[in-house]
Amino acid sequence: MLQRPKALGFASLLTLLAALHGARSADAASVSRRCRRACGDEIAACVGAGGHRRECRKSVLGRCKIDGVAVCQGQANIGGDPAAGGLGRHKKSTTTTTTTTTQPPITTTTITSATTTTLAGGGGSPATGLHYAPNHNFDSSGSYAPARAGFNLADLSGVSTLNALPSGVKGLVWLGLCNGADSTFINAVKPFVGNPKLFGFYLMDEPDPTGQWNPLCPAANLLAESDWIHANVPGAKTFIALMNFGSTKSPTYANTYNPGNSHIDLYGLDPYPCRSELGGCDYNRITVAVAAAEAAGIPVASLVPVYQAFGGGNWADDGGGYYLLPTASQEQQILATWAALVPTPVFDYAYSWGTQNSDQALESSTDLQAVFAAHNQ
User: Fold this and answer.
1) Which of 126, 205, 271, 344 gets the highest tally of CB atoms within 10 A of its CB?
2) Is the peptide bond before 352 cis (omega within 30 degrees of 0)?
3) Which residue, 224, 140, 154, 253, is CA-closest to 195?
4) What 3-state DSSP class applies to 10?
5) pLDDT for 284-299, tens place per residue?
6) pLDDT (tens digit per residue) in 12-29
7) Helix 40-48 to helix 10-38 angle, to the nearest 10 degrees?
8) In the chain, which residues have pLDDT < 50?
9) Distances from the Cα of 22 to the Cαs of 14, 102, 162, in angstroms?
């Protein structure tokens, strides 16, 4: 009589599963190694085109693991236009395949939304008087271009530009330094001491405390910089835009930066909700980002909303698609969602006034300019 095979004992089953897992892990590690070796030039090209190293690395290596090393052997089109003018704040990852800047019709689908209250002034206006939209802030004549949509916190890096700002406009000075309060840092800050048009300093964009995705930026270095500014530039605020170490669906800012370990005043969050793979906008991604920041020790009073005001071009999102330029009604819902979560920010941040990577942005969208003009009143 034929005997049925005996059931595996629990220990044997665990051994088998461990062996299978080990084999798969070894295969995955082998693929990862091959991709890292093959894709160095493509990652460098992505960074050179204006992407952050972390996002470029994730995008390029992710594509390689799916489609094989051929995508990094002359068959992938990495890149896009380098940032043309402006200071290039808050870039996204660059796609690894050829994309088109022709954007399909944008639906107004709401995947999930937070409970919001629509207020006067363009869809949920937070109670703040300062509004920032970086990149291409000054036209060929030197005029502050975002003023026509009510923005009054300028993106700049020089004292002469700060001095030339029109009445009622203040400056957020870009530094991009994370070596502590060394001589380079002090020499960069000193010219702004006592300037009545100064609002504060943009210390870093998406600093990385691990050094895995961007150059290593220890919290202690930012603490030293922020402390020096607070001691020597009375009233000036310090600001960084945070890197999300999770995904937009499940974000985390744990073990990065907060007021306790960095003494930074303000922290920007950028959960851009409008994406091609969604066919619209998932406003709940804003809600979970704020919750994650609070869980990481950043109080709501220290948060700066970063509104999505760009789309198309060569930016890849983390869901396999690309960002969509919000419609006017979608932008109003973005503003209203943020207003319910962070009702009184010190300032708010629209990314972006200027285009960065063959995308569309506020400078070319009169519809969105009208939304922000109402909001910024």
Assistant:
1) 271
2) yes
3) 154
4) helix
5) 999 999 999 999 999 9
6) 444 444 554 454 444 444
7) 60
8) 1-17, 20-21, 23-29, 71, 73-87, 92-121
9) 12, 45, 58
DSSP letter, residue 3: P
Strands 303-308 and 237-241, how do they pair? Answer: unpaired
Half-sphere exposure of 349 (CA within 13 A, CB side): 25
Residue 49 pLDDT: 52
Q: Report the alpha-carbon angle 156-175-207, nearest 5.
A: 125
Residue whose entry in the numeric block shows the structure tokens 């399909």:
104
What pLDDT does 61 receive?
Answer: 63
Which pLDDT value is given to residue 46?
A: 61
Task: Retrieve residue 258's tokens.
Answer: 């907060």
CB atoms within 10 A of CB 16: 11
Encoded tokens for 34: 């091959």
Burial of 159 (0-12, 13-18, 19+ CB in 10 A): middle
Which tokens hold the place of 132?
């920032």
In the numeric block, the tokens 């920010």 are attached to 345
Query: Model's pTM, two decimal places?
Result: 0.73
Cα of 33 vs its chain's centroid, Å: 28
**Considering just the CA atoms, what is the radius of gyration of the chain in Å?**
23
Please tell me the number of Cα atoms within 13 Å of 285 on its side-chain side. Answer: 24
Give the torsion sign (CA, 139, 144, 147, 149).
positive
126, 301 Cβ separation under 8 angstroms? no
Q: What are phi and psi of 134, to 5 degrees?
A: -80, 170
Residue 123 parent element (H or E): none
